[in-house]
Amino acid sequence: MALIVHKYGGTSMGSTERIRNVAKRVAKWARAGHQIVVVPSAMSGETNRLLGLAKELAPAKPGDAYSRELDMLASTGEQASSALLAIALQSEGQPSVSYAGWQVAIKTNSAFTKARIESIDDARVMGDLNAGKVVIITGFQGVDDNGNITTLGRGGSDTSAVAVAAALKADECLIYTDVDGVYTTDPRVVPEARRLQTVSFEEMLEMASMGSKVLQIRSVEFAGKYKVPMRVLSSFTPWDIDINEEAASGTLITFEEDEQMEQAVVSGIAFNRDEAKISVLGVPDKPGIAYQILGAVADANIEVDVIIQNLSKDGKTDFSFTVHRNDYAKTIDLLKEKVLPALGAAEVAGDAKICKVSIVGIGMRSHVGVASKMFRSLSEEGINIQMISTSEIKTSVVIDEKYMELAVRALHKAFDLDQA
Ligand code: ADP
Ligand code: ASP
Ligand code: MG
């Protein structure tokens, strides 16, 4: 007998028929003698629908007074799908109980719309599991110290599932979704993308942070911190396939580097359209410039990603960086109002139509020429690189958004990821 956490995403929970299918699959696992906790997402489209209603009343701005209410609102999507799943399980003859995040005390901080989990009380859940029930816990949400409902950021049910698995010391966390694992890149963009049987935790972390939305980055961070065995697999296989076959399917996130020895230098390609580029032009080239610009941005709680500073010419330089697209207008205003006058810089320019494409692989540690191969491949497609950033196991470039798919396809081919 094992304790296993199942997470089902929005598409997997997308209709009563699909919920019925999830219930049959979960009941199969329970009948096999396992203790099962299920963390569902809201039915697909529901979170967008709810947030869209709020937007009709008032456009959302992070940090707004009503972000508390946005969480109150968005959390209802998961509450509904969890209750529906419990009903479906009970109708299959499988004892089951559903809980909202606050009822099993998934405690978070108070950062509404992007809260972080601080603790989970496992007593109530363990009691139900030991009484033979399947326990369903809403994904995406928690409760702060003042009893306010919080949510964990878009895609946050992945993080709920891994956090619950860590708290319960589960044997495995199975992330059921609408693809049958983690691919070399998004299979919706590159049909030739291949499923990886295993991916190292470090690579998964880079891929998620570089934009692969198959897993929310915080879920991967949690899995790494608490060494939660984690697998991404399909909820669209027939529910009654052999349980051992199902348990070995998909992509396993591994913590052992040795298992990766056979793998290619580049394991995956990630892309992200959520960023925008900002340049401060004609900045006097003297100590403290980066601090004056980025300090002001950080003080406004805006996260900065890729940064470059040009060589100076006649004592002046240009300074560019990227921010989340949602923070673009706010950052430009801030720089114009507060930073330009104090800095004596000439101008602020921006471009919201950019994207970031990254190649990721732990093999990059021990191979030279990987980045140059990336640059050659992009130049052969006539794609201009605007910014570059690297870490030990990834190289990212910022390019014009209109070339994103072309770049991803070209790189996928150049690094032989099309080949089995
Ligand atoms: P869920 O609702 O189950 O959480 P998501 O839409 O959040 O599902 O994540 C699954 C989607 O992630 C896939 O449908 C796929 O388009 C996308 N995706 C992006 N990058 C990858 C990748 N490298 N491997 C697999 N899927 C990816
Ligand atoms: N329902 C939430 C969202 O759409 C959380 C999730 O699906 O993981 O972002
Ligand atoms: Mg998701």
TrEMBL record:
Residues 278-357, 359-420 form the ACT domain. Its EC number is 2.7.2.4. This is Aspartokinase. The keyword Ribosomal protein does not apply. It comes from the Bacteria. Pathway: Amino-acid biosynthesis; L-threonine biosynthesis; L-threonine from L-aspartate: step 1/5; Amino-acid biosynthesis; L-methionine biosynthesis via de novo pathway; L-homoserine from L-aspartate: step 1/3; Amino-acid biosynthesis; L-lysine biosynthesis via DAP pathway; (S)-tetrahydrodipicolinate from L-aspartate: step 1/4. PROSITE patterns: ACT (PS51671), ASPARTOKINASE (PS00324). Keywords: Amino-acid biosynthesis, ATP-binding, Kinase, Lysine biosynthesis, Nucleotide-binding, Transferase. It comes from Limnohabitans parvus II-B4. InterPro entries: AceGlu_kinase-like_sf (IPR036393), ACT-like_dom_sf (IPR045865), ACT_Aspartokinase (IPR054352), ACT_dom (IPR002912), AKii-LysC-BS (IPR041740), Asp/Glu/Uridylate_kinase (IPR001048), Asp_kin_monofn (IPR005260), Asp_kinase (IPR001341). Belongs to the aspartokinase family. ATP binds at residues 7-10, 177-178, 183, 188, 213-214.
